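Bumping with the actual sequence this time:
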Amino acid sequence: MRKLLIKYCDYGGSSAGVREWIQTQLTPFAKANPHLEIIASRSPGRHPRVQARYMADGDKSLSLKNLSWKQVSMRIQLLRDSRPVRLSKWDKPFRSTPSVQGEWKIGQQLGNDHRVIRVGGI
């Protein structure tokens, strides 16, 4: 992780835990992680969020709405210790065994031994 963005509201109740974390834990966290650029910005009237920017893997964002300062600390440490995993396509086809009904081909017609039953007056 190279950058940590913390957005919070100065007066909103959902940002109380984030404000407390910033006042008490931000300085020790920054000293323990000197390689991180930490930015705390105010977003009036918005719920708190934390966004982590990683070197090559992109961004990951988590909500901090109505969390205590301990829960905020756990979320931030989770972002620090993890990295976003991008979804990738599977290399092999979905099925590894053939279908019981046989292989389906586009435009395949039913054989003569099949009957169509109409229900109702359609």
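The tokens above came from a reply further down the thread. The helical segments are 16-24, 26-32, 69-81.
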